[in-house]
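Issue 218. Parser rejects a valid record. Input:
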Amino acid sequence: MAVVTMKQLLEGGVHFGHQTRRWNPKMAPYIFTERNGIYIIDLQQTVKQIELAYEFVRSVSERGGSILFVGTKKQAQDSIREEAQRCGMYYVNNRWLGGTLTNYRTIAKSIQRLKELQKMEEDGTFEVLPKKEVAALMNEQEKLNRNLGGIIDMPGLPQVVYVVDPKKEHIAVAEARRLGIPIIAIVDTNCDPTEVDFVIPGNDDAIRAIKLITSIMADAVLEGRQGEQMTDEAAGDEEAADEAEGEKSAFGAEAELDAAMDFADDFDEE
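Output the parser choked on:
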């Protein structure tokens, strides 16, 4: 079964690029034609690239890897948050803090501070503090949560970064490239596809287009996790079978020893 159909892409407006005067020549191989001053993206290539990205994400997820969803432009914020949460992954949808990947230790300290503030709110600490101090702490918590809430449970650096609009998220892309983290991105006609490992040529401004492609990446994560669970269950069954076989072998050896001892006793009596 196809991961996505041409009809879905057309209905989502994925084929609409930018105005012809706002383009990156490196995107020429992914452009089908020009119409009324707008570039039309070659959706046959989009289908192919989505399938490649889907398979890659599925395999990473199946091995237990994590994917970071990134999209801070207004059109992408809701889809990034909703789809990352749906598949149990991590996201940045408000503002990319410089060093989120390349200076993760410092970011981790801010995340720890956010957790401390959340705990203070939950255990009633805020209730016994002066109102002015509580207001300052809650303001700090809100700001940290806005920028770091989507990665608060991320155990470390992700294995893959998925990006909506690599031109807008150029800092995130640069950090991932520096660390050798594979990048999947929706790349519009004004972007540089050479900065991305898995190029998904498409409209990165339409909410429906972003939602469609991002949901497909989330589906890939979920399918991979099912495979991971099945692999774990199979490994567990194999381990249980090995233990049972070991018990049988031990029982068999013990029975053989008892039989040998009985034979020896009979021999001595004779």
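Fixed in the parser; the record now loads. Residues 263-270 have pLDDT under 50 and may be disordered.
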